[in-house]
Amino acid sequence: MAKTAKSQWEFGELFPAEALRKVLTVSELTGSIRRTLEKEIGTVCVMGEITNLRVQASGHVYFTIKDPNAQIACVLFRNEARAVNRDILEDGQKVVIDGEVTVYEARGQYQLRVLAVQLQGVG
């Protein structure tokens, strides 16, 4: 059999299937990270000192808990704030927090969604 000559325009596969990679949007990646954290870590108890406490007009409370080596952002949503006496929260307060690790997708930052707070004294 005679071999058919290829034209200069017949290149075959420019990008073989194995060379293709899945390209994610920032939103897709961040959502995947959030789902993984929530599934794999879930609810935790964390001890630390409150800092940067701020209460928003919406009723949500934002703060950071820290220890000498690390810190994590916390959010106490208005609907969950009924179960926690917000008046006991203040900067410098040492606490144990029950919460769920999640990601605030708009900023790509992980945080602790506060479910309960126990006072432990001054940090």
Which characteristics define this entry?
alpha+beta, 5 strands, 15% helix
Describe the structure.
The protein is an alpha+beta fold and 123 residues long. Helices cover 15% and strands 41% of the residues. The chain has helices at residues 26-40, 78-81, and strands at 43-55, 61-66, 71-76, 93-104, 109-122. A 5-stranded mixed β-barrel has the order 1-2-3-5-4. Strand 2 and strand 3 form a beta hairpin. The longest helix is centred in the first third of the chain and has 15 residues, at 26-40. The chain is rod-shaped, with a radius of gyration of 25 Å. 12% of the residues are buried. The model has no long low-confidence stretch (mean pLDDT 86).
Oligomerization = single chain
Helix/strand order, N-terminal first:
HEEEHEE
Shape by Cα distribution: rod-shaped
**What is the total tally of β strands?**
5
Instruction: Order the strands across the largest sheet as they lie in space.
Output: 1-2-3-5-4
Percent in strands:
35-45%
Helix content: 10-25%
**Terminus-to-terminus distance:** 86 Å
Profile the largest sheet. Answer: 5 strands, mixed, barrel
Mean pLDDT over the full residue set? 86
The rounded Rg comes to 25 Å
Note the total helix count.
2
Spans with pLDDT under 50 lasting ≥5 residues? Answer: none
Report the structural category: alpha+beta
